[in-house]
Each structure stands twice: as structure tokens, then as C-alpha cells.
Amino acid sequence: MQQSEHGLPRRARPSPLHVVFAGGGTAGHLFPGLAVAARIAEQMPDVRITFAGGGKPLDRGSVASAGYDYLALLCRPMPRGWLEVPAALWQNLQGYLAARRWLRRQPCAVVVGLGGYASAATARAAIACRIPLVLLEQNVIPGRVTRWLAGRAAVVCLAFEQARSRLAPGCRTLVTGNPIRPGFDRPGDDGVEPGDGPIDSVHRPRRLLILGGSSGARALNRSVPQALARIRSRLAGWEIVHQSGEAEAAATGDLYRDLGLAACVAPFVTDMPGMLAATDLAICRAGGTTLAELTAAGVPALLVPYPHAADDHQRRNADALARHGACRLIDERETVGIFDQRLADALASLLADCAQRARMAAAMRPLARPSAAADVAVIVARLARSRRPSPRRP
Questions:
Q1: Both 223 and 165 in a single domain?
Q2: Residue 180 burial class via C-beta count within 10 angstroms: exposed 0-12, middle 13-18, buried 19 and up
Q3: Interatomic CA distance for residues 156 and 154, integer angstroms
């Protein structure tokens, strides 16, 4: 044992607590984890934080920017075709074995599963290594990984109360809301809340924001510009901002130019709190994280749920907001062949009716849970501290 300057035994300094976040692959899964990690770092300045996932550029870049470590693992979603199943199972097994070996070499206090296929390997390895597992579930319909592991998790943090009944009896659940990025508690640059006041009173154009998610949504990238072209006379006084995803940015920008519409097309919106603070109407999918950010910002929305989402969970998410009058809803599956026209009709009404947008915004705000990240961080920190051994007495 090391000696102090007085010749007395010096207590070994305990190693920093290590919290691992498992998952990513999309902003909807990654950003709740980053929000919780930031809160944990505030509570425990000496904490070590690692993210483990499939190694996509969005994950690596965002985690590096936040100053955390990253572990890339093999992982793959289960394919729809049976011929690809053996390869997918083999890759996921390799990812699990690598995660288990890594966790057995690391002093890890808690693993936080962020949902989705990219979280499965590390979350399952945590159970094998007897490390407490916290699961975050962003949707009304819990994902397959959550349903699979919930019974063995220390706690499942839910974004929606309705999700509780869809998990096995005996699971420990808490409705915390969906953690969102810092910054949604600050006002917009002009201090005006979305939907408020006529355009002349705020000295800026109203903003229409199209969000297809971090990877882009091809149907929205193609159909929204076509719909806007049908109602171009209603666009006076509006600016169009369109997040297209990296792969579709050039094609989406070309489409707007071909249609003679002025629009700012961006592959990805980095400052989403600032963007939504000055947005008057959004068109977007209905992923859990997107909806959490809309409610926090109080932005009225026209929701177009992704029709191929597992268990139709985006439609259920959208229904939860629509019941409160916070959004309008269009189902792509019910508008085959007339999708552009249905979008145009809904947009024409919303763009022209400031009072309707204000009512929707007012219905959005009470649905927000702005303390979700802090609440989940408290849960994780409490579990982590309970794992730290008490110092031995000399």
C-alpha cells in the first residue's frame, strides 16, 4: 500500500464509476442517451462514459463531439428475407461475444440500453455479466429489444404511460418521458413562441420545417415539395427549411429548384432546439424522440408516421398526440396515389389558420416532460453509486 507523507497507509483512490450506453444508429435512439449522459456528467464529474453501438458516422461523430469514448460492435437488424437470417444471427452473436468480453475486462457500474438492434449485444452482455441494466423506451409500442430484456432490467424508463401494459407483468417501469437534448428550455432568438402573432408583429417570415429524421424520409423528400408546389400561392410570408438526410440532400434541393420554390435544404439540423424555437409548423415522421422535442418546443405538427415501422409504433405515437389535438395526422397507407394532394390540402388549411396552429401548440406544451433526462440520470447515478464498494477501514 502506498504511504502518505506522514508515513501512514494511504487509501487507494477509487476508480471512477463507468456508465455504458448501448445503442444508437439513429438520432432517435442516440440523442436520448447523450442527453442522459450529459446530466450524469454534471452529477458525477469523475464519471467515465462509453457509448457502444454499430459504429455509424452519426454515432461516432456525435459521441466524439460530446467527449465520450466509443466502442464499435458488429450488429445488424433482423432481415425480412429468410436467406439473410443466418448471416444476421452470426454477426449479432459476434457482437454479443465481443461486448461480453469487453464488459468482463471493464469496471462497469451500469449499462443503459437505448433501444433498437444496435443496443441488443451490449444490453444482453450486461445481463450475462450481472451488471444492472436500465432500458429507455421511446415509443407507445415497446421495441423488440425492450420486450425481450425488460424482465431482467433493473428498470425500464418509458416515454408513454400506454407502453407499460405492453410489457410482461412484474417488469419494473417508470414513466419518465423521453430524454431530449439540452437547449429546449431557452427561447428563440426573437423571443417569440411558435404559432404566436401575425407575421408583421414579429418581423420575420414564418417557418415551415420538414423533418424526415436523421437518415431522411424519401416519401417526405419527394412528396412535400410536390404538395407545396400545388399551394404555392399560400406560401407568401413563409420560409421553408427541409432536413433531407445526407443521401437525399442533392436530389431534394434539385426538386425544389425544378418546382420554382425557394427552400433551405440541409442534410441534418445540428441545433434542433434553436431551429424549433423559431418554427411555426412542422411536417415530420412520428418517432418518439421527434415528438418529445416537438412537445418541448410547443410546435404544431402535421405528422406522417412511417408506414413500415415495427409494430406500427409511429402511428400509435402519433395517435397519442392527436387525441389531445396537438397535431394533424396523415396515414400514407390510406392515401396511395393521392398522397401529394392530401398533404397539399392539409397544409393549405394549417398555413392559413394562425388560430388553429396556436391551439395545436397550446395542446403540445402540456405533453412535454422537460425533466426526463435529469430524472433518468438520477436513476442511473443511484444504481451506479450502489455498485461502488465501500472503502475499507485502515
A1: no
A2: buried
A3: 7
- Is residue 150 within 8 A of residue 168, CB to CB? The reply is yes
What is the tens place of the pLDDT at every residue in 308-340?
888 999 999 999 999 999 999 999 887 666 888
Rg of the chain on CA atoms, in Å: 23
Same domain (yes/no): 383, 292: no
Is residue 11 in a domain?
A: no
Residue 187 lies in a domain: no
What number is the average pLDDT over the span 366-378? 96
- Tell me which residue range forms the domain holding 227: 199-367
Chain centroid to CA 243: how far?
A: 15
Helix (H, G, I), strand (E, B) or coil at 266: strand
* Cell, residue 147: 420486450
Lowest mean pLDDT segment, chosen from 7-21, 143-157, 321-335: 7-21
Claim to verify: residue 362 and residue 254 sit in the same structural domain: yes
Q: CB–CB of 374/182 below 8 Å?
A: no
Same-domain pairing of 38 and 49: yes
Statement to judge: residues 255 and 354 lie in one domain: yes
Same domain, 276 and 346: yes
pLDDT confidence bin for 199, thresholds 50/70/90: very low
Question: 224: left (phi > 0), else alpha (psi -120 to 50), else beta?
Answer: alpha
Which residues does residue 3 pair with via DSSP β-bridges, in sequence order? Answer: 9
Is 155 in contact with 134 (CB distance < 8 Å)? yes
Q: Are 270 and 119 in contact (CB under 8 A)?
A: no
CA 187/CA 356 separation, integer angstroms: 22
Q: Cell 441488443 identifies what position?
A: 120
Q: Using an 8 Å Cβ cutoff, are 106 and 61 in contact?
A: no
Q: What is the pLDDT of residue 190?
A: 38
